[in-house]
Amino acid sequence: MPRRILFVCLGNICRSPAAEGVMRVRLPGYDYDSAGTSGWHVGEPPYPPMRRAAAARGYPVDDLRARQFSPGDFDAFDLIVTMDDDNLATVEAMRPQGSDTRVLRCVDFLKDTVTDHVPDPYYTGDFETVLDMLEEAAAGLELAMKQAETG
Ligand code: 4NP
């Protein structure tokens, strides 16, 4: 049963910490963490515009600090959720032999929005769309977790 869930993006200062912040409010009862495939921002809090946008919706993320994804995360988590296909490919390339930890895309949990990735607000400047998608994904993740628990 998935209890430990890791969100992964590129920098770990926008999308994945926002995902962690949204999920711990909207879907409590699981252990959440986030990581970046890059080490560019290790030790930094989330990007200030992302922090402001998330806090404005009730998801404070000031406590989070960026870290880089590592192969040990396959053991440490039951489910890994990536923000785009580049993240997915980078993570899968680090999968230890024999690990069957599931790696899914955040967009796999969207019910209404049709897209193949969570757009990177570090480049688009659109933090609200990210939060919209993460809130929608929270509902999908809740459903998926319930289904996993009941078989
Ligand atoms: P994130 O966004 O992957 O959602 O955290 C990014 C943050 C920083 C950079 C790229 C993406 N960067 O190039 O520094």
Features:
alpha/beta, Rossmann fold, 41% helix, globular, binds 4-nitrophenyl phosphate
Can you put this structure into words, describing what you see?
The chain has 151 residues and is an alpha/beta fold. The protein has a single domain (4-150), classed as Rossmann fold (3-Layer(aba) Sandwich), CATH 3.40.50. It has 6 helices and 4 strands. The protein has helices at residues 15-26, 48-56, 73-76, 85-93, 121-124, 127-150; strands spanning 4-9, 31-36, 79-82, 102-105. A 4-stranded parallel β-sheet has the order 2-1-3-4, sandwiched between helices. Bound molecules: 4-nitrophenyl phosphate. The site of 4-nitrophenyl phosphate (4NP) has 10 residues, from loops.
CATH homologous superfamily classification: Response regulator
Structural class: alpha/beta
Beta-strand percentage? Answer: 5-15%
Q: Measured on Cα atoms, how large is the radius of gyration? A: 14 Å
How would you describe the shape?
globular
Major sheet strand order:
2-1-3-4
Helix and strand run: EHEHHEHEHH
Residue windows where pLDDT falls under 50 for at least 5 positions: none
How many structural units, i.e. domains? 1
Number of helices: 6
How many angstroms separate the termini? 9 Å
Hetero ligands:
4-nitrophenyl phosphate
Q: Under CATH, the topology is which?
A: Rossmann fold
Quaternary structure classification: single chain
CATH class: Alpha Beta
What is the percent of helical residues? Answer: 40-55%
What's the pLDDT, averaged over the residues? 97
Q: What is the makeup of the main sheet? A: 4 strands, parallel
- Which second-level CATH architecture applies? 3-Layer(aba) Sandwich
- How many beta-strand elements? 4
